[in-house]
Fold this protein.
Amino acid sequence: MKKIEHIGIAVKDLTSSCKTYEQLLGVKHYKVELVASENVSTAFFQVGENKVELLEATSEQSAIHQFIQKRGEGIHHIAFAVDDIYAEMDRLRNEGFTLLNEQPKNGADNKLICFVHPKDANGVLIELCQEIKS
Ligand code: ZN
């Protein structure tokens, strides 16, 4: 893995949370994106070479909705940039990690993504993400 790409934060209200994080970070979000497949609406902030992703559930089926019901708002996942997500998924499978999706899927911000089960990472949901080269 190359570096922490972003930290995902589960929020109840994207609009008000965007304002809070704009004030906190001193930068405006550069993108708001609906990820229909995940039932989330997201906003991204660039902070140096890393990003902060705010995630709001758009339906009760959303993992973000369930997360907030159980644990409240807060850090939801840490995402690591990888060069080759297929190779990294194979490597992690061979190491015995449980992947939450068998194939990479399309995530927000032009990325292929895969999640590693939090039970295998001391309670932290880990996301792998690879930039989609166009
Ligand atoms: Zn993410």
In short: The longest strand covers residues 3-11. The first helix runs from residue 14 to 25.
